[in-house]
Amino acid sequence: MNFYYIITRGLPRPKGVLNVIIKNASMINKDGNLELKHIVLQDGVISAVLDGKQEAGEAAEIIDAKGKLLIPGLIDMHVHLREPGFEHKETVETGSRSAAKGGFTTIACMPNTRPVTDTPEIVQFVKDKAREAGLVKVLPYAAITKNELGRELTDFAALKEAGAIGFTDDGVGVQNAQMMKDAMNIAAALDMPVIAHCEDNSLVEGACVNEGKFATRHGLKGIPNESEAIHVGRDILLAEATGVHYHVCHVSTEQSVRLIRQAKQIGIKVTAEVCPHHLLLSEEDIPGMDANWKMNPPLRSRRDVEACIEGLLDGTLDMIVTDHAPHSEEEKAKGMQLAPFGIVGFETAFPLLYTAFVESGKWDLSLLVQRMTADPARVFRLNTGVLDIGAPADLTLIDLEQELEVDPGTFASKGRNTPFAGWKLKGWPVMTWVEGKEVWNANN
Are 324 and 344 in contact (CB under 8 A)? Predict the structure, then answer.
C-alpha cells in the first residue's frame, strides 16, 4: 500500500522571515514510521519540510509541537450542517467549528436541508456561510432530485457551475431505477460523481433499528441488510452501464462490502465510505431504548462490523467519514421509535479509531491517517490530504498520549447526540490549521 510521504532530501533551507514554523513535529514517513521534522508554512502553503536536526530558522510565529503527531488536515466527505432550515440542530458556523476541533480541515455537506440544496442559489448560500465562518473548507453537495422527492432531476449543469462537488439525495435513496440511470448519465457527461444513500423504502417503512436480536427483544420492526445491498447492487450495474463515478454512502453490511469488492475487481468505477460507529459498534452494544444509539444505517451484527473492517483494510472501502448528524436533545428524547436518526461525529472520530485500532496494535497509524486524508482527497480529486511542498497548509496536530473522557457537554457542535459519552480515548487533536491559518487550538 502506498502511503503519502514527505520529500525533504536536497531541499534548500528557507531564508528570511516566514509566516509559521512548526518545530519538532512527528510526521509519518514513506515507510510508515514517525520522524521528527520542522515544517515551514508560507502564504498558506507548505514551503519546506526540514529534518528535525536542522535549524528551523525564523518566522512570524514559531510553534513547538513537542513531538506531537502532525498530519494533513482530516477530510470528511459526508456531513450534515443543517443550514438552511434546521439551525436549531447545527449551523454552517457551529458545524465548521466542531469540525476544526475534531481535526478536520475539509468537509462536504449533504443537501437534505430546508429548502433542499437543489438550486444554484442554495449552493451559493452554503458557500457564503462557510466563507463568513472563516474556519474549515466546506464543499456542498447538491440534490439529485428536486426536494429529494425522487420525481424530477435537478439541473446538474447549473449546480456544478455554482460549485456543487457531486450529486446525492442523502437521507433517502433514489427509489426509481430509471431516474437513477438518467442521473448517472448526466453526471458522467459532466464528469461529476453520484453519491448514493442506498436504501429500498419498501423494506424499511416504520423500522428504526437493525433487523436482528435487539429489534426482536424490544418488539421493534427492523431494517434488514438487503434494504441497503439491493440498492448497492442495482446502482453498481447502472454505474457500469453509464460509466459514472459512483460513490456509496455509509456502508454497513457484509453484502454491500462483497458487492463493492466484486465491482472493483471487474473495473467498475465505484468507491465507498464507512463510518466510525459501523467499525466500532454492533447491535449487541446497544444498552437500551436510548435514541443516541439510533442512526441510519443502523448498528448491524458483529459479522457486518468485521466485514466493514476487512473492507476498509483491503481498500474495498476507500475512506472513513463521520456522517456527522446533529439533533436537539428534545428530538432525541422522543425515544428509539420516534426520534430522528443520526449521531454527531466530528469531535470523536480520530480518537475513537486511534484508541480502538492503532493503540491496540490492530492497524498501522499510517493506514488510519491515509483513510482520513489522502484517500478521500484522491477519490474526490481534492488538492489537499498530503504534506507535500506546495500543498495547502491544511494541518492537524494530534496528542497521541493525552487521555480524555468523551464529554458531550464540551462539544463545539450544537449536537450532543453520541453513544460514546464516557469513553476514555487517546489521540486528541490539539491544533488545526487551514491554509496556514490557525482555526482550532485546544489551549485557547
Answer: yes
The least confident of 3-7, 105-109, 110-114, 137-141 is 3-7
Q: In the 8-state DSSP scheme, what is residue 181? A: H
- End-to-end CA, the chain: 38
Residue 417 sits at φ, ψ, to 5 deg, of -80, 95
Q: Is the dihedral of CA 356, 81, 326, 411 positive or negative?
A: positive
Set of cell numbers at residue 204? 424499511
Question: In the annotation, is 323 catalytic?
Answer: yes
Which residues face 142 on adjacent strands? Answer: 167
Task: Measure the CA–CA gap between 442 and 444, rounded to whole angstroms.
Answer: 6
Task: Name the band, by pLDDT with cuts 50, 70 and 90, for residue 225.
Answer: very high
How deeply is 31 buried, as exposed, middle or buried, from its count of CB atoms within 10 A (0-12, 13-18, 19+)?
exposed
Residue type, 269: K
**Dist. CA 210–CA 217, nearest whole Å:** 12
Which residues, including other chains, have CB under 8 Å from residue 423's CB and lie 6 or more apart?
348, 352, 405, 406
The pLDDT of 259-274, averaged and rounded, is: 98
Classify the phi-psi angles of 205: left when phi > 0, otherwise alpha if psi is within -120 to 50, otherwise beta.
Answer: beta
Write down the catalytic residue from 318, 323, 394, 399: 323
Poorest-pLDDT segment among 45-59, 89-103, 177-191 = 45-59
Distance CA 419, CA 411 (A): 14
Give the whole-angstrom CA distance, residue 168 versus residue 110: 8
Q: How far apart are alpha carbons 317 and 306 in whole angstroms?
A: 13
Share of the chain above pLDDT 70, in %: 96
List the Cα angle 162/164/166 in 5-degree steps. Answer: 150
Sign of CA dihedral 338, 340, 342, 346: negative
Burial of 16 from C-beta contacts in 10 A (0-12 / 13-18 / 19+): exposed
Tell me how far apart the alpha carbons of residues 409 and 431 are, in angstroms, rounded to a whole number: 20
What secondary structure letter does DSSP report for 198? -
Amino acid at 14: P
Q: What is the pTM of this model?
A: 0.95
